[in-house]
Amino acid sequence: MNIKLKLLATMVAAALTSACGSDTQHTLTPVVNPVSESVEGGEDHTDHEHTEVSIEGRLVVSSHQSNVLSVIAAKDGEHLDSIGITGTPQYLYATEHHRYVMAVQRDAGIVEFVDGGLWQEDHGDHLHPYEQAPSIVEFALQGVKPTHVNAGEHNSVVFYDGDKDTNQNAQVMVFNESNIANNNRDFSTLDYSTYQHGAMQTVGEYLISTIRDEQSLSTLPNKIGLFHGHGDHFDQEKVFDVDCPSLHGSAQSSELVAFACADGVVVINTHDNEFTHEKIMNSEEFAEGERIGMLRGHPEKDLFIGSSSAAVYAIDPSNNSVEKIAWQASDDARLVGAYFSAEGEHFVLMDSAGVMSVFEGHQHDDEYHWEKAHNITVSSADTTQMPEEHGFVMTLSQSQQVAYVSDPINQHIVAIDLENGEVVHTFELDIVPNKLLWLGIATESDDHGH
Length: 450
Known about the structure:
Blueprint: H1 3-19, E1 58-63, E2 68-73, E3 79-84, E4 91-94, E5 100-105, E6 110-115, E7 118-122, E8 127-131, E9 135-142, E10 146-151, E11 156-160, E12 171-175, H2 177-181, E13 188-191, E14 200-203, E15 206-211, E16 223-230, E17 233-239, E18 250-252, E19 256-261, E20 264-269, E21 276-281, E22 294-298, E23 301-307, E24 312-316, E25 321-325, E26 335-340, E27 346-351, E28 355-364, E29 367-377, E30 393-396, E31 402-407, E32 412-417, E33 422-428, E34 433-439
Antiparallel strand pairs: 1-2, 1-34, 2-3, 4-5, 5-6, 6-9, 7-8, 10-11, 11-12, 12-13, 14-15, 15-16, 16-17, 18-19, 19-20, 20-21, 22-23, 23-24, 24-25, 26-27, 27-28, 28-29, 30-31, 31-32, 32-33
């Protein structure tokens, strides 16, 4: 990272914090706040105090064409800090334990990291929570067009597409929160021999990642490979004997990894590192030319949710089925967000008209079905008033059954209880929100789909 740019970002953050009247300081000592609930460690320990830490977490908000990230308390909307980074982030993602935001500046080839200030450590007989002010960290990544990003159980992954026009090759970097906290560059990288708009998932010390035919005119891959990590690099162990044309999108569940193809979904079983595969073909419900381009998974379920440009599908590998879900609550609205809740009991869809649909999962005999539980109108504003290049953005808490949605028209964030479908908080903002991300201590299971 360019030192002058890093220094400039820090100066911008300091100036904006002062301008907003915030007295929050960048400090490494825990900041103790009054809370209604806490994440507690064990008992009978005399070597340290146990700090009460808010379970609600924090929200990171970006604004259009700005290099400043606002961090607010998810409990009450209190502005905690403004953090300056090098450039405007196109995407915000959380690392594997939701401590850091990965601020992806794709055009500049930069991924920067901001510490949300909430995390926990394993102290042997208990997990000890910590809370401090949010801050930018020194750890940063550079590569050509960082695009697909996800977080697994133990690490985070960034796929760099490379560039066809400049003949720069794709890369995959696999690291974890320990690397970030210690500014440690000792992590594994997969270097490709060509560019590609790829996707990947990690399984222990293995990486399952895409392979592009170097003779193809397309930037999309058509094969899937298994790579084994060895220190700072990965070695290719196999190419799965299955075609996956125009591959785009991947996710993983408890023991399955899925990749979306133009004609179906390839599912790889990772049990005992045997890495067997099958392919579920698109059903007759698919229109001509329709394909799944986004997948979501959950670590406690061996099923997936996928979406195309026209529909949402439930993918059940145990029954080799792809079933369309009736979800659209608004005429002519498109899907803008889709996530599993923390425990996987709900699947939540957000549309471009400002309507959230909450589905509950039910097991019946050998089949799993999703039933709509709530439709919530997040905003009744005239969507023609939506600022250019903006839209409704959703993020889900990983400690509670709560969804947060940013509304650029009304310049606020609403918090919605997934159990009863009610709006429980509205946080007014002094910026027009663009991207939105939850950070905190996950007390439930995580959603690791991309």
